[in-house]
């Protein structure tokens, strides 16, 4: 997880700025997951093993 966060730090920071706490979408109750630690795990899985997230 640490390596993923370091490798994609800029992209993750932009995601947090655009959709995380304090953002316009968050003020409407959307994208609440983005501000939570679990979002890092989901981002890593979507990047490295997206087909495992399918049913």
Which helices and strands appear, and what pairs or packs with what?
Layout (H helix, E strand, L loop, with lengths): L1 H6 L1 H11 L4 H4 L10 H11 L7
Report on this model:
With 55 residues, the chain is mainly α. The chain has one domain. It has helices at 2-7, 9-19, 24-27, 38-48. It starts with a helix and ends in a 7-residue tail after the last helix.
Q: What's this entry about, in short?
A:
The protein has 55 residues and is an all-alpha fold. It has helices at residues 2-7, 9-19, 24-27, 38-48.
Shape: globular
Beginning-to-end CA distance, first to last residue: 24 Å
User: Could you estimate the helical fraction of the residues in percent?
Assistant: 55-70%
Compute the number of strand runs. Answer: 0
Order of helices and strands: HHHH
**Total tally of structural domains:** 1
Radius of gyration: 12 Å
**What's the overall average pLDDT, rounded?**
88
Beta-strand content: under 5%
Q: What summary fits the major beta sheet?
A: none
The helix tally amounts to 4
Defining key terms:
0% strand; 58% helix; mainly alpha
